[in-house]
Every structure is written in structure tokens, then in C-alpha cells.
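User: My instructor asked us to take a sequence, write out its structure as C-alpha cells, and then describe one feature of it. I'm not sure where to start. Here is the sequence I was given:
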Amino acid sequence: MTDFMLGRETALVILVLFGLAWVGWGWYLGRNNRTIEDYALAGRSVGFAMATATAMATWITSNTTLVAPQLTYQFGVWGMLGYSMAALGLILFAPLAQRIRQLLPNGFTSGDFIYQRYGRFAWAMFIIISLCYAFGWLVSLGMAGGLLLSSLSDLSYLTGMTAILVICVGYTLLGGLKAVIATDFVQSIVIITGVVIVAWVCIDTVGFDTMHTTLTREQPELLNLLFPAAIMFFFNNIFFGIGEIFHSNVWWSRAFAFGPGIGKKSYLTAGLLWLPIPVVTGFIALAASSLNLVPPSADMVGPMVAAKLLGSIGAVFIFVIVFSALASSMDSLLAATSDLLTQDIVKKLFVPDASSDTLLRANRYIVIGLGIGTWCIAAFKLATLGALLNFTGAFVASTIWPIVFGLYQPKLTGRWAGLAMVAGTTCGLIGYFAIGFYVAAIISCGVSLVCCRIGIMQSKDYFQWHELEEKG
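Assistant: Let's start with the prediction itself. The C-alpha cells for your sequence are:
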């Protein structure tokens, strides 16, 4: 065990303190939840500061703290810049959030919109895509927790993965969206402060000149702005990030939960604040060669470099930062996915006249079930974080145009919207396996756009927007 790794006892103490603090706070915040609307949407009255913090913290996840360094380590400059472009998802969703709240003032989920706008076929395709993405993201977050512990301490991957799931399931179960948003607010402050400190220490300790000289000698391709695969990744990640946010109930549920007029301002602000963070977290991976570090897995490079720079105390510091980032995303995903399953599966398909109490109980059972299911899949660690996340790019990018046209273009019908999602996902997956993960989202988005445009050109029907307001 190297001198910058956490001891077993220290790591366990941090886990216990984290668990007690977050779960206890979750119970406190959720003690007055009485209805499914209180639990799932925090009473639809979240203010600007909390709204901005939860949007930004949720998007600072294993992608930003572990996968951004991984892809910088693999693709160099384009890796960090490519991840920073995911900020466009938050920024472009800002006007959509306002439109969503106007059209469905009493909506609960993204599935509500798809069902009412397009009908059952497109809704079924959308739910399948949403659940595939949600489980992929949940599993990647569980894996990231395990990787974090195993790279910073001698605790096992399974211990770290189990700990983050138990903690996040615990406070999400007890507090609902109120607990998720409140903890995100604190976690966003911790994350931003920590990232800035680590970057400053990296620059001060290693220096730009040393890093550039070492990379030029040992890994010149990482500085090559004409690196073909990296350029493709850059553009692929733009569509991947937009598709992730546009379709996911994580972001739709917040559009419904934020107070009137808050959504557009908070998403725009969160996107601008988030933009430089992947550049900073990715940047430290470029110091690996200068520090003579060779990570056993590319997705462990970030915490290993940071711990090397900051020593044993730094390992604790990095542990807290990355664990906060993972928790801020996992809790949001647990809450949003359980809402989707409760409202779109339990209520729409099985118990259409369910009471608020029944839905509240179902929601909580589903949170537990999601935690157990994620643990069972993440325990096998079937792929790296980057590979797992980018696999879902083919799914989510196919939903971009059906959602955009669904909100603004009255001529697109449910049949063509559903076909666009199926064809886009299928072609994106073919590209993923035949060419590489860095083209899956581009292909998926392009095919979906073609299908939507054909559907709009041949359609003679016009959807009446007031139907959404009346049903919502």
C-alpha cells in the first residue's frame, strides 16, 4: 500500500460519518412529507439558489470527477473539452424547462409529456430508453463508488459500491426530493471548492512546463488537436450530453418542482457554472506521466493523481469531493427513476385510480428495489465507467428531436416520434459496436432527426397545445 492511500480505519470512519450525516438529514427534511407531490416534487416551490445548486451538483457526477480524467488520459485535450461541452445540455434545456412548466403545470414526469403528446407507442419506446439509461447511470455511479474506495484505500470495490448505494438509498427513501435538493446544495459547495484546490496544487506542484515536456516526450498524441478519434468523441459528447438531459426525468422532475419562472434561469446559470469543471478535473489527469503514475484502470487516474499530489490528508479530501459528486447524482437519479416507475408504470398501467398514500408507498418500495437491482449489476463490474456510460449514448440521443419537436412542432405524430427513437437507437448501437463508442450518439441523433423531419413533412395533423394543459 502506497503512502498516499487511506487506511482501512480512516476510510470506514469517513463512510460511517457520511452515512449518518446524510441519512439523518434526509429524515429531518422529509419528516413533513405528506403527499406524493411533497415527496416527489418538493411541493413545486424550489427557489433559485437551491434550483441552480441541485442542477449543477447533479451534473457533477462520476462523468465529471472520474470519467473526465479517464478520457483526458486517453484522448488528451479533446477529452477534457469534450466533457465540458456537456454543459450545453443544461444551457439548452433552460428554455425547454420553461416551456414544459407552461404546457404541463401539474405534470410529474417526462413520461407524462410523451404519453399525452404522442400516445402509447412512442411512450412505450421512451420508457424503455429511459429505464435503460437510468440503470446504466445508476450502475456506473455504484461502480464509481467502489473504484473510489479501492483506489484510495485498501477497502474492496464491493465495500465502496455497497456504501454509496446504502447511504443514497437511505436519505432518498426518507426525505424524497427535498432531501435530494438540500444535500445537493451542500455537495455542490464542497465539490467546487475541492476541485479548485486540487487544480491549484497540481499547477503549483507539477507546473505547465513539466507536464508539457513530459507529454511531448511520452504521450504526444494527447496534445494532438488532430487526433481523429478524439475529435469524434468531442462532437459525440455534445449530442450525448444534450440527449441525457433532454430525455431524463431527473431534469424534467426539477422543471416541475422549481417555482414558477425559476427553471429557465436556474438551468442557464447551472450550465455556465458547470462548464469549466470537466476541464479542471480532466486537466489533472495530464499530470499522471509527470508523477510516474500508471493507474491499473484508466477510470482511476483522477483520484490517484489527486491523492499523490495532496498526500494522506489529500486522500481524505479527494474521497469527500468525489463521494459528494457521486451522491449528488445517485440520489437525484434514484428519486427521478422511482417517480417515473411510480407514475408511468404503477399508476398508468396497474392502478390508475391509486391514492396519494398508495403512490407514496409504491415510490418508496421502488427506491429500495432500484438500490438492490443496481447493487446486483454493479457487483460484476462488466465494463469501465466510460464504456458503460457511452453505451447509453445511442439510446438517449434518439430522444432529442422527438422531445424538441414535441414541445414546439405540432405536426409530428406519435408513430413517427416512436419510429425515430427506435431507428435512432438501433443505428446508434450498430455504430457503437462497428465503429466505436465515440460515434454512437452522433449516428443516433442524425437518424432520429431524419425520421422526425419525414414525419413532419408527410403529416396533415396539428396537435393542439391546450390538450396538454387540460390533461396536465
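For the description part of your assignment, you could build on this observation: The chain has a mean pLDDT of 86. Try explaining in your own words what that tells you about the chain.
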